[in-house]
Design goal:
nine-stranded parallel beta sheet, 39% strand, 15 strands, globular, six-stranded parallel beta sheet, 2 helices, 169 residues, mainly beta
Length: 169
């Protein structure tokens, strides 16, 4: 199921009244994913959307990508990308190919690719990823473990391996 088409996402914003849209409609447009994020999600195939008014509790499993605009409590497992929009409130452990957080996330994040915290986004918990991007204005309260693609996550390490933690002053 494709939610977005390329021609539906525009970067152009007009002041209220010029296009007939209310300020609330324009704020909703500002929460839309960027063209780059939409392209990445479209390439991965199926996109599941949890709308702004939705409150879900339990385990969410997606064979493709997942976009959360509402509230989730539990676990999120996606084969594709997970995008948490600015209105999202998530208390869950997230496992995915990559994650983009513009809302609020409390839990552990484990991704094989990129973890991105957008300006205004907040993560309270640990992140394990191949790369981590924290934009100015984002809040990250936790520990980050960097993994190379294909490298086992900390929970998958063999019992003989040692992990060295380094603290930065």
């Amino acid at each position: 199921m494709t939610i977005f088409k390329r021609d539906e996402v525009e970067d152009v914003r007009h002041p209220a009244g010029e296009t007939g849209e209310s300020q609330a409609e324009q704020r909703g447009a500002a929460e839309r994913p960027s063209r780059r994020e939409v392209r990445r999600m479209e390439q991965s195939g199926e996109v599941t959307v949890i709308g702004g008014g939705a409150k879900l509790e339990g385990t969410i499993v997606s064979a493709g990508s997942l976009r959360v605009d509402g509230q989730v409590k539990g676990q999120i497992q996606a084969d594709g990308d997970v995008m948490l929009s600015s209105g999202s409130r998530v208390e869950a452990d997230v496992t995915a190919a990559s994650v983009s957080v513009a809302g609020s996330l409390r839990g552990t994040v484990t991704v094989t690719g990129r973890a991105e915290l957008k300006s205004g986004g907040r993560v309270e918990g640990n992140i394990s990823s191949a790369s981590l991007v924290v934009e100015e204005g984002a809040i990250f309260d936790g520990q980050s473990t960097m993994q190379r693609k294909g490298q086992p996550t900390p929970g998958e390490r063999s019992s003989g391996e040692q992990r060295k933690e380094v603290s930065v002053p």
